[in-house]
Structures are given as structure tokens and as C-alpha cells.
Amino acid sequence: MAANYKKDTIVYQIYPRSFQDTDGDGIGDLRGIISRLDYIAELGVNTIWLSPVYVSPDDDNGYDIADYKAIQPRFGTMEDFEELVEKAKERGIGIVMDLVINHTSDEHEWFKRALAGEQKYKDYYIIKRGENGKLPNNWGNFFAECPWTKFGDSEEEYYLHLFSKKQPDLNWHNPAVLEEIKDIMRFWLDKGVVGFRCDVINVIYKNSLSNGKKQLVLTGREHYLSTEGCHEILKTLRREVLEPYGAWAVGETVFVDIPGAKDLCAPKRGELDMVFSFQHMEVDQVFVKWFKTRLKPKKLMKTLTKWQKGLDWNAVYFENHDQPRFISRFADLGPYRKEASTMMAGLLMSLRGTPFVYEGQEIGMVNGDFKKLDEVMDIESHNIYAMAKKLLIPNPIRWKMIKRTSRDNARTPMQWSAEENAGFTEGKPWLKVNGNYKEVNAAAEMTKENGILAFWKKMIALRKTNQILMEGHFKSVYAGKQVYAFERKKGGKSLVAVCNMTGRSAKLPKRVIRKSGVKKGSSIVVSNYDACDELVLKPFEFRLLER
Ligand code: ISL
After folding, report:
1. Of the residues 97, 199, 201, 322, which should be mutated to test ligand 1's pocket, given the most ligand atoms within 8 Å of the CB?
2. What would the pLDDT profile of 236-273 be if each residue is shown by its tens digit?
3. Concatenated DSSP letters of 221-263
4. Which residues line ligand 1 (CB under 6 A)?
5. What is the pLDDT of residues 80-94, one digit of tens each?
6. Phi and psi dihedrals of 127, rounded to 5?
7. Are 447 and 54 in contact (CB under 8 A)?
8. 199 included as an active-site residue
């Protein structure tokens, strides 16, 4: 692990668009975040990851950057940003920026100058001729589009975009691109940010542009996933940029397996500090993420265990701006929203690694209650819907797909109060507020001593102060149809975390009884129920036991 790495880091991810609006335009802003810093500090986290706040035409809500060194006017000014960094720092909170460097926006100056014919900037992008009227290769695209779009008025030239056509991929074979990005990173580090979350970082360097092996999704990916070139770039960025500032980096690494993740974040490699892996997010998917089935807890447990054992340190998360709300994925959530959310809190804070909490997760927000496609804004959802239509998938199935998997499920405005628009905005929210806001909101939670938010705070506080949770080794104890149990061990001391991942009560398995010393006077450090039955776990019960 890099020297600057901190075992007590707990991150809160903010999707600025949806967090808090202060100027009535229906879109969250930096002043909104500043106004909520006390709330965030009280939650107990010490780091904020800001999804992109740079100038952007918002084709992909800021993940298409038109100016890396300026703040999106809709979000505020550079002064607001500086104030945010300062005020966060006063509260012991560091800011992590989202670094999107696989692609820029097509409205970035570099791309515009490339289009205007400046060779220097054409070399910043991946531009290739198609032969005999054909596309340059057979690759796929993350957003179910064609990854090649005609370059300007050219008849033969195309540019590559693994995401939307407004997100042209950068050419990482060009050393000038690396220099530009180093400069951008230093710009933000000089403003006091503590690190970066690196967007799709393991796809940036394309080995070759030749045809790929046919795949259900993303044909061609073998040419760019975690290539040697990418490793080299990460090493350079660590050595020359991160290290001198004592900054850290978490990489979003798609399609990564354990050996691949090790190569990207093992301390001796000097690349990333940790990675977001996806396998535990895929336990309820059928081939592709747009088809979901019931979540089978055992599969989730096995995947978590595999990663806990496989890597020394994980970036642990269950929600972010790309995933449906996690508790909505339990097929039988029923009346147990509070229990499921608090169990998740217990689990998240008990696993080994750096925990990431996504805005609204701490008050048990659930999937958006969209009724029709018009209410969904996400480019990916619209593209998938269109593709499914082309494939003649009937409308009700198409809609079900989108409703369950849309990234907008987690992007609905933060529910602050029972006031109009959940206290998110005085204007018209850019995305529909979930109709349950009168019941599910932060203000209501703040009045409850025993509520969801209170439990998240309790778990975060424990995670920050308990050496075993912070540093202890992970040992699996049990993974069954309902119950997940694991041990954290340090210096002869151990804690056993026990989760019932279903809405039905469950007997405490014998192995768990033995390992946790339940019958030998072990004590409950924390639980999400007031009273626990010694040998039976209630629906979505979480217990942390000390032997
Ligand atoms: O969830 C996904 C993979 O199964 C993809 O939809 C997602 O696009 C991928 O995880 C990459 O995500 C990141 O880069 C995208 C941006 O749209 C996402 O919001 C971001 O998190 C392009 O910049």
C-alpha cells in the first residue's frame, strides 16, 4: 500500500447534480454541498468523492468533460469550489476528485481544434480510416452505440468512443496526452484535493485497434483491458504526481478479476491504492447487466469472500451513481427497508477495506419510482431501450429492464425533508424525486434515536475507532442461503460479523455459534435490533460479536 494510504478513510460519494440545489435551477450545486457539510461531518466520514463538477455539456452528466480546469457554471464557481475544499478541511474532510481520462467531451477545446484540422490535436484522439466503406473494426461500446463516429466532414476517418459519441477516447500512445493529464491533476492537487477516483481507468490504453474476439458485450475488449501501457501510465502518475503530493487514488476497473486487480493495486507495483471491482454487483445479472434476476444472497456472500481473501485491501461499496440502490435488489425487502439498510451498514463497515457510502444510502433510499421512459434521463438507459426495441423485445419487458437496472435509480434527488421536492430544490428537479420522500428523508431520520441514519453513524464511528475493524485480517466463517458470517482478527482478538441477508428469520448456524462463542459468553458489540434472540436472527439482522 502506498505510504500515504490511510486505514481510517471512509468515503462519502456525492453526485452533485442530485445532492442539494440552492439556486432553484433544479440541479444540485457546490453551495448546496457546502450547506450540507455539517450533515456529512456528523455522519462521521472523512472524505468526499465528488462525481465530476467540471465544465461539461452533460451528455453523460459530467463524465464528458469540456474543460478539466473549470467548474461547471450550473454547479457554481471556482471560488465556491475553493470554499468547499477549505470548509471541508475545517471539518476534517478531504475532497477526492473524479478523474475522467479515458475520454473528453467532443466539446473540449482539444477535440474542436482536432476537428479544425490541427494535427497536434488530432493526435490526442484515436482516429482511424475505415476501408471500403467499412468501420475501422468490429468493437463494441459500453453504451450500446457504435464506437466509431465519422470524424467531422471526413468521408473515411472515424474517431473511437467506447462510451457516447460525445465522449471521444483519448490517445494514450501520445506522450503529450500524459503531460496534459499530469498538469490537470497537479492543478487540482494544488487546490488541496487529497486524491482521485479514476474513471474506467483500466481501459485507457488501447494495444491495437484490430478486430476483436466476438463477445456478447464489448467485442474487442481484450485489446484494451488492463494493458501493459495502462500499467506504465499508472506507475508514472503515481511516481510523478500522486506521491509528491501524498495523494491517493482509487480506480474504477471494469471486467477486472482478482489477479488483474492485484496487478493494478498491489502496493509493490506503485499504481493505484485500491480498485472498485464489479463482480459482487453482478451476482443478480443474467449475462449482461440489463437483465436481472432475484439476488441470491449466497452468491453475493461467496463473491465478497473471494475478493476479501483475494486482495489485501478492497474498495468496499454496494452503491454508487451507476448501480441501482442495493437494498432494492433484495427480492424480498418487503417491510424491512430499515433493517436491510442497517444490515448493509453493518456489513459495509465490517469488511476489510475502505468503505464507500453513496449519498442517500445512509437514510435507506431505494430505487427511483419511475413510471415511464420519459421520466428516465440516463443516456445508457435510453440507448439500451432503443437497442432492445431493435431486437424486438416486447415493450413491457423492455420497460422492466430499464426500471430495474437504470443508473437513474440511484441518481434521484437526495431526500432531505418532507417539504416539496424533498427539500432538494425550490425549482423543478432535473430528475423525478422518489414519491416516498415524505417517509424517507434525512430530516425524519435525524429525529430518530434508533433510526437508519443513527445506525449508519454508529457503524461509521465504530469502523473509525476499532482497530480490529480497521486493520484486522478477514476470515470467512459461513456463507449459506440466508446467513453470512466472517471474522476480523488482529493480535489475538477477534470480532465476528453476522448478517441475515433475507427478509425471513434464520437460525444461527452451528458453525457460527461455535466460531463466535455465542454460548460461551461472547458479547454483542452492535446490532441493528434492540433485542437479539440468542440463536435466531431476525429479518436482515446484523450482529457484531466479540469473543
Ligand atoms: O455500469 C457499467 C458497467 O457494467 C457501465 O454502465 C459504466 O458505464 C461503467 O461502469 C463505467 O462507468 C464510469 O464511466 C462512464 C460513466 O458513464 C459512469 O457514470 C462512470 O462511473 C463513462 O465515463
Report:
1. 322
2. 999 999 999 999 999 999 999 999 999 999 999 999 99
3. GGGTTT-HHHHHHHHHHIIIIIHHHT-EEEEE-TT--HHHHHH
4. 60, 63, 100, 142, 163, 199-200, 252, 254, 289, 321-322, 380
5. 999 999 999 999 999
6. -120, 130
7. no
8. yes
